[in-house]
């Protein structure tokens, strides 16, 4: 077993030579020049070899003695970013928590850097992940190939690894958004920002209701994000499956200011508004398109920043669920009634830019889904399957591969500036829907997953 796993370097070297002769650049924006047959053939050979190497291995019991079952630790700084796998104009700032496994292991070759702000000051982030040696070998094997590997090609390995056991991947909230983005943006690179602790990091200011000092604190972090991430790494897009509200601030108050009376609604609104400089950098930076998951039951009273339309480079994304939306590809249906929204989304309608269909109903593994629902991968990036749980956090990253597809299809030679962002937003929600007056004539209810409106399909990985 050890000798088999160790021999993979020679085998990969041979495959890399083949790829150099017949493969394509990860930065090639013309899907007509790349049907991915070379990399798919290489992957299939590696899958077969991997299955042979994993045959007979069992790490599911305490008596497992194979060296391949031993736990190994890997830091982000132990890996390397491979620039040749990514397009120059698709660097995504991913903001979330709990996706460290994917960033460190599964998609390490596509992650430029990681940051966090545990005390409100931006710092490099170098998390350590522990996993069985055989998992690390398998995951690095496919991640270190010089081209994107579609997760659907690796399902046989994932099936075998689930039987072997030894440990499940340690994941959190951000795993699903990151899996959606990295699976449907084959040419993208990423910078990971663990959600900064802004108000939590200054309980003295929070509990004193020092709004001006908190705003200065937020502005300081915002400037660091702008200089050390957005400018330093040439960020083109932002994805954040999160947000703030008076209820979020209220919970932070309870945690940090125990024993003090709850602030009034007006004071909670001012506390939230102190985060405005940070939001301004994320959602009003010139030429950077951002997507954000919309809140539930959004109002101007309870969601000061998420209800604010002045963040013009932001797309706020909500969801609905149906097996058949009956929508055309552009969603333009005139005076017809669009598909119904969940109550929390309907109540937020004026403050959400687009509603996207998940393509399944119910919840859980037995949830019925249509022929083209929203898809995700597992934490290993070795399975491609329909989602079965609905939330705005999971639907927001569906919008970004759609927006990038529009850019690459309709405006391939245009500079990404604020005017270009406005045109992309207009393509996502064109005029021509009059049923809901609060939509102002925009066709906010869309079904991009049904029409496979994302980069994975545009680049013909699904053929």
Helix % is: 25-40%
The neighbouring-strand order within the major sheet is 4-3-6-2-7-8-9-10-13
Counting structural domains, the number is: 1
CATH fold field value:
Rossmann fold
By oligomeric state, this entry counts as single chain
Number of helices: 16
Amino-to-carboxy terminus distance: 35 Å
> Low-confidence runs (pLDDT<50, min 5 residues)?
1-28
Give me the strand/helix succession: HHHEEHEEEHHHEHHEHHHEEHEEEHHEH
Please name the CATH architecture. 3-Layer(aba) Sandwich
Average residue pLDDT: 92
Q: State the CATH class.
A: Alpha Beta
Strand content: 5-15%
The main sheet comes to: 9 strands, mixed
Structural class, please?
Answer: alpha/beta
Kindly state the number of beta strands.
13
Provide a descriptive summary of the structure in words.
Helix 3 (37-54) runs parallel beside helix 6 (155-164) and helix 7 (175-184) packs parallel to helix 14. The strands form 3 sheets. Strands 4-3-6-2-7-8-9-10-13 form a 9-stranded mixed β-sheet. Strands 1-5 form a two-stranded antiparallel ribbon. The model is unreliable at 1-28 (pLDDT under 50). With 463 residues, the protein is an alpha/beta fold. The chain has 16 helices and 13 strands.
């Amino acid at each position: 077993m050890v000798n088999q796993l160790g021999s993979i370097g020679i085998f990969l070297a041979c495959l890399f030579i083949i790829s150099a002769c017949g493969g394509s650049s990860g930065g090639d924006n013309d899907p007509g020049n790349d049907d991915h047959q070379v990399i798919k053939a290489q992957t299939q050979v590696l899958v077969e070899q991997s299955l042979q190497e994993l045959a007979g291995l069992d790490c599911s019991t305490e008596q497992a003695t194979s060296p391949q079952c031993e736990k190994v630790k890997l830091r982000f700084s132990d890996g390397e970013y491979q620039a040749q796998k990514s397009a120059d104009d698709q660097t995504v700032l991913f903001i979330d928590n709990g996706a460290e496994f994917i960033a460190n292991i599964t998609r390490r070759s596509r992650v430029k850097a990681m940051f966090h702000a545990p005390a409100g000051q931006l710092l490099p982030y170098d998390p350590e992940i522990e996993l069985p040696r055989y998992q690390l070998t398998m995951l690095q094997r496919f991640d270190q190939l010089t081209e994107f590997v579609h997760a659907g090609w690796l399902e046989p390995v994932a099936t075998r690894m689930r039987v072997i056991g030894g440990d499940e991947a340690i994941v959190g909230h951000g795993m699903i958004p990151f899996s959606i983005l990295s699976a449907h943006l084959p040419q993208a690179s990423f910078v990971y920002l663990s959600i900064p602790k802004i108000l939590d990091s200054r309980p003295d200011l929070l509990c004193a209701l020092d709004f001006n000092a908190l705003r200065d604190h937020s502005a300081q972090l915002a400037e660091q994000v702008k200089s050390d991430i957005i400018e330093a790494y040439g960020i083109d897009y932002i994805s954040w499956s999160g947000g703030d509200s008076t209820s979020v601030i209220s919970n932070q108050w309870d945690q940090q200011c125990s024993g003090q009376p709850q602030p009034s609604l007006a004071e909670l609104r001012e506390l939230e508004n102190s985060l405005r400089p940070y939001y301004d950098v994320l959602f009003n930076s010139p030429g950077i398109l951002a997507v954000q998951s919309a809140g539930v039951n959004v109002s101007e009273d309870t969601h000061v920043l998420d209800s604010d339309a002045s963040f013009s480079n932001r797309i706020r994304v909500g969801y609905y669920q149906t097996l058949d939306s009956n929508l055309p590809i552009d969603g333009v249906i005139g005076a017809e009634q669009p598909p119904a929204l969940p109550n929390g989304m309907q109540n937020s309608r004026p403050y959400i830019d687009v509603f996207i269909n998940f393509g399944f109903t119910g919840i859980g593994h037995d949830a019925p889904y249509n022929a083209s629902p929203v898809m995700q991968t597992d934490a290993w990036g070795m399975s491609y399957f329909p989602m079965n749980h609905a939330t705005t956090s999971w639907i927001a990253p569906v919008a970004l591969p759609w927006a990038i597809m529009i850019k690459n299809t309709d405006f391939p030679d245009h500079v990404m500036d604020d005017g270009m962002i406005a045109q992309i937003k207009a393509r996502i929600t064109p005029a021509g829907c009059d049923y809901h007056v609060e939509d102002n004539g925009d066709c906010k209810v869309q079904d991009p997953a049904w029409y496979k409106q994302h980069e994975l399909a545009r680049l013909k990985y699904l053929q």
